[in-house]
From TrEMBL:
Keywords: Pyrimidine biosynthesis, Transferase. Pathway: Pyrimidine metabolism; UMP biosynthesis via de novo pathway; (S)-dihydroorotate from bicarbonate: step 2/3. Residues 152-299 form the Aspartate/ornithine carbamoyltransferase Asp/Orn-binding domain. Belongs to the aspartate/ornithine carbamoyltransferase superfamily. ATCase family. GO terms for cellular component: cytosol. The gene is pyrB. PANTHER family: ASPARTATE CARBAMOYLTRANSFERASE, ORNITHINE CARBAMOYLTRANSFERASE, MITOCHONDRIAL. It comes from Thermobispora bispora (strain ATCC 19993 / DSM 43833 / CBS 139.67 / JCM 10125 / KCTC 9307 / NBRC 14880 / R51). Catalyzes the condensation of carbamoyl phosphate and aspartate to form carbamoyl aspartate and inorganic phosphate, the committed step in the de novo pyrimidine nucleotide biosynthesis pathway. It comes from the Bacteria. GO terms for biological process: 'de novo' pyrimidine nucleobase biosynthetic process; 'de novo' UMP biosynthetic process; amino acid metabolic process. L-aspartate binds at residues 83, 166, 220. This is Aspartate carbamoyltransferase. The lineage of its organism: Bacteria, Bacillati, Actinomycetota, Actinomycetes, Streptosporangiales. It catalyses: carbamoyl phosphate + L-aspartate = N-carbamoyl-L-aspartate + phosphate + H(+).
Length: 311
């Protein structure tokens, strides 16, 4: 693997499968009474979050601690810190502290790439603007593979606010790399203009896509990123693009439902569907820790034998 994880598009099929297979091996550790490995003892992982994110930050923190790394949580909210020069100053501070890996979430697309040019440690993109969120795509692929037994050849529909979704961008790239067929579904106002360069299909008709779909990934409607009127009303959006009981019934019996969270229950997904046995939303959260353990483990040079060794 390379030194950084900045984009799902940087991962070859071999890289992606290595991460998924390593996460599967690490899941055995999570079943022990003591869920820790000594692999990254003495290493320092910094969580550098310029945007709020409870689940992703806690997931990375849990992953690093299970590998015995030291973790520093650096919350850098506020306008003065989010300017480019300030990011560089922060990077120099982290460098002086001897950070081996920096997990960064930033409101500006491209911030992790900038950071990677300024520090010697590994940089992991935990979400930058509306650009990418590669570890979310990896945990989604891992979750699909666990639930369905494979990723290759599956038909995946990613539905909703694609325009503002870094999760969608990363998933389209990674799932294509792993051999799935991806269709983006949403209102025309929420599908990016550049989508014709992405390796996927586009549909504006959710009902037509559902019967031939194996995996439905619902996206959160990101109202906080919307400056204009992207759809007439929440009710109208839900009527056309929400996954409710009636739409759920159009899926074949083995199809599964996903959501990166947090959910707007009753808007893009009904509570009944979110809590159904064919929803793997809760599993996605747990799988996130395993996948992030695998990424830290591989980037920071864990030895293969350490996974199986020692209780």
């Amino acid at each position: 693997m390379k030194r950084h994880l900045l984009s799902a598009g940087d991962l070859s099929r071999e890289d992606a499968l290595l991460i998924l297979d390593t996460a599967e091996e690490l899941s055995k550790v999570s079943q022990r009474s003591i869920k820790k490995l000594p692999t990254l003892r003495g290493r320092t992982v910094v969580n550098l979050f310029f945007e709020d994110s409870t689940r992703t930050r806690i997931s990375f923190e849990a992953a690093a601690k299970r590998l015995s790394a030291d973790v520093i949580n650096f919350s850098a909210r506020g306008s003065s810190v989010s300017k480019g020069e300030s990011l560089k100053d922060t990077a120099l501070t982290l460098e002086a502290m001897g950070a081996d890996a920096v997990v960064i979430r930033h409101g500006a697309s491209g911030a992790p790439h900038r950071l990677a040019g300024w520090i010697r440690g590994s940089v992991i993109n935990a979400g930058d603007g509306t650009h990418e969120h590669p570890t979310q795509a990896l945990l989604d692929a891992f979750s699909i593979r666990r639930a369905m037994g494979r990723v290759e050849g599956l038909k995946v529909a990613i539905v909703g606010d694609v325009l503002h979704s870094r999760v969608a961008r990363s998933n389209v790239q990674l799932l294509h790399t792993l051999g799935a067929e991806v269709t983006l579904v949403g209102p025309p106002t929420l599908i990016p203009v550049a989508v014709d360069t992405w390796p996927c299909q586009v549909s504006y008709d959710f009902d037509a896509v559902l019967p031939k779909t194996d995996v439905v990934m619902m996206l959160r409607v990101q109202q906080e990123r919307m400056n204009g009127a992207y759809f007439p009303s929440a009710r109208e959006y839900s009527r056309r693009y929400g996954l409710d009981r009636d739409r759920f019934a159009k899926l074949h019996d083995d199809a599964i439902v996903m959501h990166p969270g947090p959910l707007n229950r009753g808007m893009e997904i009904s509570a009944e569907v979110a809590d159904s046995p064919r929803s793997i939303i809760v599993e996605q959260v747990g799988n996130g820790v395993l996948v992030r353990m695998a990424v830290l483990y591989l980037l920071l040079g864990g030895s293969e034998s350490a996974i199986g060794g020692g209780e």
